[in-house]
Amino acid sequence: MHEPAPIVETRDLRKVFRTVRRRPGALGALRTLFSRDYEERIAVSNVTMSVDAGELVGYIGQNGAGKSTTIKMLTGILVPSGGEIRVAGIVPYENRKQNARNIGVVFGQRSQLYWDLPLVESFELLRAIYAIPRERYQRNVDEFTDLLEMREFLNTPVRQLSLGQRMRGDFAAAMLHDPAIVYLDEPTIGLDVVAKEAIRAFITRVNTERGTTVILTTHDLADVERLCRRIVLIDHGSIIYDGDVERIKSEYGRFRTLVVTFAAAVESPALPGAELAGVQGTTARFRFDRNGERADRLIRIASERYPLEDVSIEEPDLESIIRRIYREGYEQRTEEATR
Amino acid sequence: MTPYWEFAKKAFAREATYRFEVFTNVGSLILRVYLLRCLWTALYAQNAAPLNLPLHAMITYATVALLMSLVLEIDGTRLIREKLHDGSIATDLMKPIDLPLYFFSDGMGRTLLYAVLVIPTLLCALLLVRIDVPSPHVLAAFALSFALAYCVNFVLNFCMNAVAFWTLETFAIQLIVRWVSDLLSGQIIPLTLFPGIAGRVLFALPFAAIYSTPLLLYVGIIPQSQWASAFAVQIIWLLAFGAIATLLWRAASRRIVVQGG
Asked: What ipTM goes with this model?
């Protein structure tokens, strides 16, 4: 196909917000009104990443980790405090309007559709905004209407749509002008399983068939497992992992968890070859390396040592992996394992 | 076809969906036309009429002022405030459009709906009051002056709403400015009725360019010989506040870009 080339590049990207420090209480509020001190909050620091044309990248982080701030800088509505950005060769905040033609944006929590108008009229308006040639516009509307099954509510005012319908409308709206890059910010938030699946299928299709570069931020790691080959993990404003989803899974996936429920409470249970990861009531969790240890051996030892009621094994899914990384910080697991 | 024309069309359609609001607006306006007629008639019966403004001219003035307000009270720039409040200004900034022009065309679309309604409103009003209709070339001059007044009104509103970029809340300012400008612009009382220095100060304020100038043209207090200078003053205000609006917008958009939506 085509040579992959970086389409989104940031180097040492940094954003510091200055906010008014509020004093507590009514008197404090009054004092805030007249004298202000400011505090600085670092939202993003040293974010360096490069995304190739046609990639589908999951940009993952907890609330307040700096995801949305990064996205806003990429769209050009926020000026970085330091560092460089280029999106399709353009510095977004210097050429906001030119950059806007290359990008599409979907916010799960905010609609870009016109509340009072039928869905299709929002599309018409976007056609005018982006000066989309009529036949291309018609082709896209037809295709998206089929893919997202929007026919039955195309003429319904947006305010009467369900969340799932509105989101499908928003996706179509963001893609009408064939943007090279789309930013999806929590696009599946609040959706039911069926609607989520429809949205995911649409994202995959747009990425594979149109070659659109997709940067997806989400809390729903099922989205990431379904869609992304690569994730960028951000925590407290800095990137802590950038690489394949598969790699992080195999690194952390070496460790499985044996969950044992005892018939009676056991004081400091232990199993040779496994590490105690936690005790809750009569249930203990043991972490062990898939390569160095076998589950059946551990279960046998456990049943010899303790009266057991139940035993199960947990395979790590992405969610638990990410949760652990937030808790413990990311470290190169492969090195630890080959040690 | 430019997107801005499309914005105006959509605003027109959107405003038309709020049928109840539109009819209430028009209905209350007709009622106000009638009440003002009663008020001025009563006032004129008590006192000697001012020299240059007989009762029929006063009623004409008040009625035309109310019809103008149907169009002029549409504030397209209140969108700035709303969009800052709900944060949707961020999504607008992600589109390749010029936001002040967008606000103007949105306001224009809503204005056009009411402009269409002016005719039936006028016809209804004529059942209640009798107004003078000047010669066609005075009407043409009035139309031009009114168009300028619309633009001055837009830039003034724009400046006021742009303050929301710093304060987020401008409702109190809005209210004060609205009351003051209704009074000072000659919408309620012709500025010629203010005595001495007060009258001269009011004529020197920008608000006079909104209601007073077109209305005084209409009732003939501004004679043809002074039309050119009347338009010139309106244009000067338009340019002055246009410049302030541009500066404010530049500072404001920098601010939003730095602060985040």
From this structure: 0.74
